[in-house]
Amino acid sequence: MNAFNRIAALIAKEFRHLGRDGRTLAVVLALPVLQMILFAYAISFDVKNVSTVVIDTDRTPASAAYLRSYSSSDFFRVIGTADSLADVDRVFDRNLARIAVVVPPGFGRSLAAGEQATVAVYLDGSEPTAARVGQAFATALNQVYGQRVTIDWADTQGLDVTSVGQLEPRVRTWYNPEKRSSDFLIPGLMVVIIMVVAVQQTAVSLVREREQGTDEQLAISPLARWELMIGKLAPWTLLAFGELAAITAVGTLFFDLPLRGSLGVLAVGAALFVFCSLGLGLVISAVAPSLESANMLGLLLSILPAFILSGFAFPLASIPGWLQVVSCLFPARFMVTISRGVFLKGAGFAELWPELAALAAYAVVVVGIAVALSARRRR
Fold first, then answer.
1. Which alpha helices (H) appear in 1-127, and where do they start and end?
2. d(Cα 143, Cα 171) in Å, to the nearest integer?
């Protein structure tokens, strides 16, 4: 029997083994798609409808018109009025509101006289993201309202402010013009889910075989180490590709995720990434003494790096330099760039070759380490 036949027989055995455990196979196939749907709906970086309370101590038509500009905004959701800063403190403490807008006495009189009027905007800093975005929106809203008031006042004075030179910025967002969080998150979410499933399932299944004694039977078989490695990796590789195809279909069909690049580039990157993830699972299975430790190591070395050190949720440029170096130890860091480049930017081999080369080198190194550790364990 030649090497090809031996590997094919081992692959067939692995698939029969997976087929006997129908529950595990169903979980492996269905769970990534369910996770994709749940995470895509649950995770969003879009900040809107932030609960806001207002205090109108001026009580004039001008102050009422000003506060209506908050009610008509998609960002602010005015839930009620307050009478004092003590009321603001209470609603902040009870998490009933995140923003408070206070119009002081004399607001309308100052506007009517053409003078500068002031308002106070209080932000709940316990949620920094909402506070930062709220500050930006409040500043922009006040600038627009102030310009409108200035133009109205100039009209009453018979002045033409439109003849004065003005700056009008025209901002255009490329690749995601609607700035949808789903377009940013889903390409990275695919990578996170595949890495977690591939690393953990590979590590756990191999350690389970070792505890059941199946691994020892294969060790005394005529299979060479590289044949054994290919035979073990091939079924999980095919399953991972099936999961990736299903997740891609869900993202494009259900969430309108654009696919502007080449499927060929995505397939090459996915193949390298899957080998990297499976190789990492092999390394874990070689060093883990028990099924529990394999499960724990699999989660530790897949979920945390995939979420934190891949650029999935946070820009890599915002983390410390030494952590950026550490992120290169995990393949998700490169695959997230490839996935977003293909889906959103239409990037090809010319733009993504550094990440593809990094994944190829990572796959060679991690599989080599796994082979060496497995050989040492059998001695």
1. 3-20, 22-42, 61-71, 85-93, 107-112
2. 17
Q: Bin 283: left if φ > 0, else alpha if -120 < ψ < 50, else beta.
A: alpha
Number of domains in the chain: 2
pLDDT of residue 161: 56
Residue 362 domain boundaries? 3-44+180-378
Per-residue confidence (pLDDT) for residue 294, from 0 to 100: 84
30 and 84 housed in the same domain = no
> Are 145 and 28 found together in one domain?
no
Q: Of 130, 163, 196, which one is at a domain's C-terminal end?
A: 163
CA–CA separation, 205 vs 299, rounded Å? 14
Would you place residue 342 in the very low, low, confident or very high pLDDT band (cuts 50, 70, 90)? very high
Q: Of 163, 194, 218, which residue sits at a domain end?
A: 163
CA distance 307 to 131: 23
Q: In what order do the strands lie in the sheet with 76-81?
A: 76-81, 50-56, 99-103, 120-123
**Residue type for position 57:** T
